[in-house]
Design goal:
8-stranded parallel barrel; alpha/beta
Amino acid sequence: MGKYRSNLPQLGEHIFLTDGGIETTLIFHEGIELPYFAAFKLLGSDEGRRTLRDYYARYAAIARHRGMGFIFESATWRASPDWAAKLGMPQAELDALNRAAIEMLKPLRSAFETARSPMVISGCVGPRGDGYTADARMTADEAAAYHRAAIEVYAQAGADMITAITMTYADEAVGIVRAARAAGLPVAISFTVETDGRLPSGQALGDAIDAVDAATQDGPAYYMINCAHPTHFAEALATEARWLTRLKGVRANASKRSHAELDAAPDLDAGNPAELGRDYAALRRRLGHRLNVLGGCCGTDHRHIEQIAFHCTAEAAQAA
């Protein structure tokens, strides 16, 4: 049973950090080859697990130093059947690595968690498609069936929750919510958007959140945005609509490039960490501090998370 499964601490207003862009960090900073961005393959070796432990420890230490909570997001964004098949990996091995992803995080939580810094373990579920386009579309029932095995493994391994990262259309998100609830796990849904603030499917962000809530009776614990720069979605948040009250988290890209530009780029655009931190503080002011799950996506690393923590702490102190 997950430690926080029945009472997620991030549902309050205390700030919770997450890690940054794990795949881009491993590829560009650690020099590790990750076919299909499949970081979960590292769980299959002692050296790989050591690399992942060091990666998470750096972020957890930032949260503890700042007195903020932390969400350990498992390295399993690509750990689903279609991607495993591309790697020549059978289902039994995929299940074992998904279990290992959660098990590895438990001693890290024990090492870094304090009363001021509660730490949640989340099983990360990525899209069946590539995350930049709304391809490989499924019905909600098909999505529930596709993601069910991984979600059940995370539940059995003791995860506190599920976070679906880089969702590109509503039906897949609905299926994940249904599978998570069937497994007894709370779930957060994180949509990605293009430079116009709309999902890759073309649907408006608010419409997608409303659609998932309507199909699941407000099933998600909360929603997030990831894999986009704050300048891409700031205007979409200029509303008083109900769906905005359901948004609690952001894992933004360091770069202001579009998905298409990032996909074609041979280099890493790390942007400006301090500027990104100020952007997060501005988003929190706009949303009345409901936005309290803060991390990074493509191109971000510990420097960006440090700046996000600094600027949001300073901003919170000024507000108080």
